[in-house]
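Q: I'm writing a short methods note and want an example of a predicted protein-small molecule complex. Could you take the sequence and the SMILES for NAP and return the bound structure as tokens? Please keep the output block clean; save any remarks for afterwards.
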Amino acid sequence: MRILLYRGDGIIEPWARDFAAALPQAETVLWQEGQAVERCDYAVIWAPTAALLEQLKNVKAIFLMGAGVDALLKFGDALPDTPIVRLGDAGMAEQMAEYVAYAVLRYFRRFDDYERQARQGVWQPLPVRAKSEFTVGVLGLGKLGAQVARALRQLGFPVRGWSRTPKDLPGVDCFAGMEALDEFLGGTQVLVSLLPLTPETSNLLDRARLSRLPQGAYLINVARGAQVAEPDLLALIRAGHIAGATLDVFRNEPLPAPHPFWGEPRITITPHISALTLREEAVRQIAGKIALLEQGEAVADVVDFDKGY
Ligand SMILES: NC(=O)c1ccc[n+]([C@@H]2O[C@H](COP(=O)([O-])OP(=O)(O)OC[C@H]3O[C@@H](n4cnc5c(N)ncnc54)[C@H](OP(=O)(O)O)[C@@H]3O)[C@@H](O)[C@H]2O)c1
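A: Understood, no commentary inside the block.
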């Protein structure tokens, strides 16, 4: 069995080592720009070029070394018909739950205010926020969103979730479809995005939608930056309608030096680290799926490009 490996960032040697250990019967081939692809059974890739995708029409499946597939949407009809399989959780859901729980608790328990006060040498207890009125709304109830919703429930927050198709999650008030979005937003104190970036979710959180959130609401975006109209968010924070935001993802990454988010103290910025690909778990998952395909079995997490995720 031959497996082609490629990463747009060039960091491929550790993956090759781990695949050689996980699938000792397979030969791994490291592809480089300008090379012709020799006969391969599978490809494991991240951030591919059009030239590479063009040559992957005959592999049995293409595996992605990540959970998001939006970067592939731009290839449109040039995408091969080959099944493309993304990572499903692979250790990312737990990281997301940690990140979002921290961000929610930091705002709920006013650690951001206390950090500011401490820097000014101020000793001043602040009014306690009522947990029963502190509803967290999770956009996207897939692999990552569902685990985040569960973790927030365990912390005792009222939790609601929004997805494309109806869901039934214990203890989570579930909403589905565009027609339910305004009602969902209207009762959300902290909004968390865990949606994939698709034509439907691009710019979803614009001025009109963010204005549906109650006065003093807070935004946590750990999905994709292009879901948020950044100038609208900034204007609503400066106007006091939105209290602040914790943002891990941005329309342009790295966030450019002159971007106004850098200078806004009510925005907390992290460099797209809320859930990193854990190589060991990813290799184990992909090797397991290759074994299933070799036995003629179906695998989970095949991307549906009609839906866009
Ligand atoms: N910041 C980071 O480090 C990082 C790391 C990993 C992933 N991510 C992002 O997280 C996203 C989610 O990952 P996942 O594995 O949880 O994806 P997933 O399992 O595919 O779940 C996606 C969820 O979004 C919902 N959804 C999609 N389009 C929608 C729409 N138009 N309206 C309403 N709901 C919609 C889906 O609804 P249905 O259930 O009805 O299909 C599903 O519940 C990824 O796409 C990626 O962009 C970020």
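A: Remarks, as requested: The radius of gyration is 21 Å. The pocket of NAP is lined by residues 67-68, 92, 140-145, 162-165, 194-198, 200-201, 222-224, 248-249, 272, 274-275, 309 (CB under 6 Å).
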